[in-house]
């Protein structure tokens, strides 16, 4: 999913926006700072990451925690509701992997038209 050559956009099922599922998976092991999220999400801009995180916060899936400084640090972590998505997302990833060739074929057939 985080491989740069992986066309994760092929997945027909999305949580939130294009990046939300990958952000949730990045937070699976625990809270991360904004800059730490940008490492595995190489193709995302700061603006889009901010928008995605805000959307996930509004949905109750991610919590933003500000740690008083100096320096002030902000971390993002999964809420219990966000954690409850990990198992269904793992099932969706397994399904996508199982049907990868079919998904690629369908996508190529659509672009050939």
Automatic annotation (TrEMBL):
Keywords of the record: DNA-binding, Transcription, Transcription regulation
Listed name of the protein: Putative transcriptional regulator
Signal peptide per UniProt: none
Residue ranges constituting the HTH hxlR-type domain according to the UniProt record: 6-104
Organism: Planobispora siamensis
PANTHER family: TRANSCRIPTIONAL REGULATOR, MARR FAMILY (PTHR33204), TRANSCRIPTIONAL REGULATORY PROTEIN (PTHR33204:SF39)
InterPro entries (alphabetical): HTH_HxlR, WH-like_DNA-bd_sf, WH_DNA-bd_sf
GO molecular-function terms, A-Z: DNA binding
Pfam families, sorted: HxlR (PF01638)
SUPFAM superfamilies linked to this entry: Winged helix' DNA-binding domain (SSF46785)
């Amino acid at each position: 999913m985080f491989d740069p050559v992986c066309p994760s956009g092929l997945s027909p099922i999305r949580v939130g926006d294009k990046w939300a599922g990958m952000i949730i998976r990045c937070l699976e092991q625990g809270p991360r700072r904004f800059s730490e999220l940008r490492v595995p999400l190489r193709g995302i801009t700061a603006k889009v990451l901010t928008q995605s995180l805000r959307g996930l916060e509004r949905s109750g899936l991610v919590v933003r925690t500000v740690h008083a400084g100096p320096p002030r640090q902000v971390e993002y972590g999964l809420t219990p509701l966000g954690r409850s998505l990990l198992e269904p997302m793992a099932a969706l990833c397994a399904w996508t992997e199982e049907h990868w060739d079919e998904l690629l074929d369908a996508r190529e057939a659509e672009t050939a038209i």
